[in-house]
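Anyone have tokens for NADH-dependent nitrite reductase, small subunit? Sequence:
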Amino acid sequence: MAWYKITEVESIPSMGSRIVKIGEIEIAIFKTKDGSIFAINNICPHKQGKLSEGLVHENVVTCPLHNWDVDLASGEALGNDSGCTNVYESKIEDGLVYLNFITK
Ligand code: FES
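Reply: yep, here.
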């Protein structure tokens, strides 16, 4: 496992996201209403909309382009839609967010 320190938890808005770039990969780090953190590729499994610009509700983000709901924990499209984007393991320690870049 390779954990990388990313940012302070407080720098991510509640029910919002922050983007980090790792090489060519753009990862959206979301914070839900209860303070949970999720890290997911910033690419919608439908037509590559930027999930970081979507609306967060529960543990789901709604893509801003065509309103697909994507589960932040699994990266799976919900409802009648199908597709999946990569998610990354994350953890919070001492107020800092860490990501594990090995994809799940
Ligand atoms: S690109 Fe996300 S719903 Fe179409």
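The pocket of FE2/S2 (inorganic) cluster is lined by residues 44, 46-49, 63, 65-66, 68 (CB under 6 Å).
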